[in-house]
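Form 12-C: Joint structure prediction
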Amino acid sequence: MKHYDVVVVGAGPAGMACAINATKHGLTVLLVERDDFLGGQLIKQTHMFFGSEKQYAKTRGIDIATILKKELLKQDHVDIMLDTSALAIYDDKVITLLNHHDYIKVKANAIVVATGASEKVLAFPNNDLPGIYGAGAVQTLMNVHGVKPGKSVVMVGAGNIGLIVSYQLLQAGVDVKAVVEASDSIGGYLVHAQKLRRLGVPILTNHSVKEAHGATALEELIIWKLDENFSGIAGTEKRIETDTCCLSVGLKPSSEMLRQAGAEMTYVRSLGGYVPYINQNHETTVNNLFVCGDVSGIEEASSAMVEGFIVGLTLANRFKNVPNFSVLMTDLKTQLKDLRAGETGEHIMKGIKQIMRGDHHA
Amino acid sequence: MRISSHPILKFNRDKELSFIFDGRKLVGYEGETIAAALHANNIKVLGHSSVKHRPRGFYCAIGNCTSCNMIVNDEPNVRTCITLLEDGMVVKTQSNKGELK
Ligand code: FES
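Section 2 - Result
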């Protein structure tokens, strides 16, 4: 059985950053990714990022993936397994993997779970019809594979993902019939909303989907107005003919593997769902089992990256001595703090407080 | 329904691959997933649910939900949204949970 200092599950921004920092300081690392490419969801982000220069602001997500990839491939002690799904983590830090038809066991001193998030679903009659997709799924289809999801789209959810994907649908030549939002205001940045409005896309707040119809795939969507308790108001129904509907109703951490590994978990609404208790170095209640990125709370790719660097550095210092450790760590922690400034950040910080455990647990 | 021109992105469609979907011969490109190639051929129904037999398409496209499970080269429960298309692949819609052989 192969033995590594660190096995990282997931090669998105968090996992890649973690692998880079761990191996840069002398650890042997195995990075496991279920897709056949590195970069995770960055590779479908054609818009420019906010944040500061250190996290590549004003750079398109897809280009950030390339920067991280270059940095990673420069390192000597990192093995990368693509097309490989991690199956389970055992008490003796053995992790089992599936690569096509090969079942592989690997041993590690520490395991980092950076499995990201998955899209939530909205409940309404016939929401399982083909043609009703996650907004991120449609982004993958368009921006990675160059395939349109359909002729027209109704977007459900006016957060940043909903707005950005709507704009990208227009760029791909798909008719965006409306953006429907259940709350009374637009959740995403107004710059994105204005772009859509200028192109004539209506953004309907206080609206949601009543039901979907179609023989074998989506043909029409019935939307209606919501009252202040988010119940539909009879008589306000509108019928929209469309072959595609995108649901952009939030993300939840893909944290199942942590529960399986025995980490103590709790439900935190502001972090998107079930998340592990962690200490300030992102170690869970299981010794040498770490997390970084969306799996421990939904945020942005920029903070996921910084968290990855923090975990990588922590591990490097645990197993080897990193001479300028505290300088490097202080810089990373400051970056993370800056990214979490502002209203959304406050909301996230409140959630993080709920899962922070004192170091005495460790 | 492929995107022919895009303001930011370029798509590499150098190598054509042919594959069989439920007995029909279709064409896709190297580097795309089975689900993407099917969608480009206007095929949205990838299977049927095992109890109520309702049509199923993909949902997440990143390997999370198994809504895109199909039978590929006789193997059931293949997540076609993260499985790359190969030349000569035989792809079938799946309508049960799959069987262990
Ligand atoms: S669509 Fe979700 S796993 Fe393929």
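Section 3 - Comments
DSSP finds one helix and seven strands in chain B. Chain B has a mean pLDDT of 93.
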